[in-house]
Specification:
With 160 residues, this protein is an alpha+beta fold. The chain has a domain at 15-32 and 72-155: Thiol Ester Dehydrase, Chain A, CATH 3.10.129. The protein has helices spanning 34-43, 49-52, 54-57, 69-85; strands at 23-31, 89-99, 109-121, 128-138, 144-155. Strand 4 and strand 5 form a beta hairpin.
Amino acid sequence: MSAEERVVTQRGLYYEELGTGVVYQHRPGRTMTETDNVLFTTMTMNTQALHLDAAWSATQPFGQRLMNSMFTLSTMVGQSVAQLTQGTIVAQLGMTDISFPHPLFHGDTLYTETVVTEKRLSSSRPGQGIVTMVHTGRNQDGTVVGKASRTALFWLTPTK
């Protein structure tokens, strides 16, 4: 490789690079499809008719099938990976305060943002830090469709 050539590897942010209170907007959004919903729902053995039965769901309060909320949650976390955790996370420690205040439907587009709410160095794992972040998912109209607090163990910037 010549001196003019550079290699840039996509990665998330190390512990020190994460700013408390910073809003990280993850793009692109993800438009939810009927296929996504049916595959995820059946793959996870969730037989809930609200996800699978269009005729029955039409008689329910929302008048149509709902996206599986676990798919919504998984996609919210997934949308954050390239920007925040790709290659910089050690482990996910837990999730709390998960809510779905508005349903997501087939054809809706999910946009997620993350705010780091707390971080501290690990007292038992040198070279690592504990980060708490809140993921918020919104549909194309800006309506909040999901929210979750997530705690993860991150690598500190490697020393050279």
